[in-house]
Amino acid sequence: QVQLVESGGGLVQAGGSLTLSCAASGSGFTLNTMGWYRQAPGKQRELVASITRGSSTNYADSVKGRFTISRDNAKNTVYLQMNSLKPEDTAVYYCNAEVIRFGLFYSWGQGTQVTVSS
């Protein structure tokens, strides 16, 4: 079993910064593409950013130029650096990973709340 545990959420004023981390635990697995999603109240979960094992990145238009996704393959960890935060960034942020372990499956973290006050 592979578990993803997020950390780093919290309350920040508009214009501020936060860094989210997501660490995978378990054994005998490989992580392919990892990503961050978010879900605001009353809205569907949406992709924020993703990163391949080779560190190719993809961003939602709404966060381009403000957020940076990165990963440390040795630590099985993915990060999301969020700058110039806006109230509309308020959401629960979820980590997702494509996991190879006796097959291919997707794992989700439990989510971490990010609240941006105006």
Structure commentary:
The chain is mostly beta strands. The protein has strands spanning 3-7, 10-13, 18-25, 30-39, 46-51, 57-59, 67-72, 77-82, 91-100, 104-108, 112-117. The strands form two sheets. Strands 2, 4, 5, 6, 9, 10 and 11 form a seven-stranded mixed β-sheet that branches. A four-stranded antiparallel β-sheet has the order 1-3-8-7, with no helix packed on it. It is elongated, with a radius of gyration of 14 Å.
Rough shape?
A: elongated
SSE series = EEEEEEEEEEE
Main sheet summary: 7 strands, mixed
Count, helices:
0
Helix content: under 10%
Mean pLDDT: 96
Number-wise, the strands total 11
Our estimate of the beta-strand percent is over 45%
The assigned structural class equals: mainly beta
Our measurement of the CA-to-CA distance between the termini, rounded to an integer number of angstroms, reads 40 Å
Radius of gyration from the CA trace? 14 Å
